[in-house]
Model the fold of this input.
Amino acid sequence: SQTIHQWPATLVQPVGSPLSLECTVEGTSNPNLYWYRQAAGRGLQLLFYSVGIGQISSEVPQNLSASRPQDRQFILSSKKLLLSDSGFYLCAGGGALGTGELFFGEGSRLTVL
Amino acid sequence: DAKTTQPPSMDCAEGRAANLPCNHSTISGNEYVYWYRQIHSQGPQYIIHGLKNNETNEMASLIITEDRKSSTLILPHATLRDTAVYYCIVLYNQGGKLIFGQGTELSVKP
Done:
């Protein structure tokens, strides 16, 4: 079965510092991969998605970027964090378009101070 | 924009069936309907998905209307542990985008 590993689980960073959240996938190849953010309460905002290596689509203009250097690796980054980047970040992956279960990591809670 | 509409909150008595509705009036023929739930501060958990036929698994049943413009997730015997936010998602064929709506916060009460 597919599993998503995401780390770190918790991160406290000062404003202006860089960020790197990493996500890896096991149990499948060529998954679609997603980064979401949950700022407060519920509501998952799609940040980036990728249908293959080096293919990144950005959903909202922001201070963040994403990269997919390998088929099963998805990285969320920032050069300089803002207070508004605080939130709960989730990596998700799925199989072929329109089919299959979607798998989520356990999330990374980022607090920017 | 999310392509699904759900009520923001619902209550259900423990042991009774919870019926969570979702509208997806712009769904196209090859798009699936997925249901997930999220317990506070955890990653979403897959529940069930379907295309046009009704589906049932050990967790829930999914009823999709014949025109596919709406669906209902049914938890047959809700327990306190079913208290969570439930998301109805339409998985697009084009571009791989997976968009969540605001979900329904289900509170199961004793």
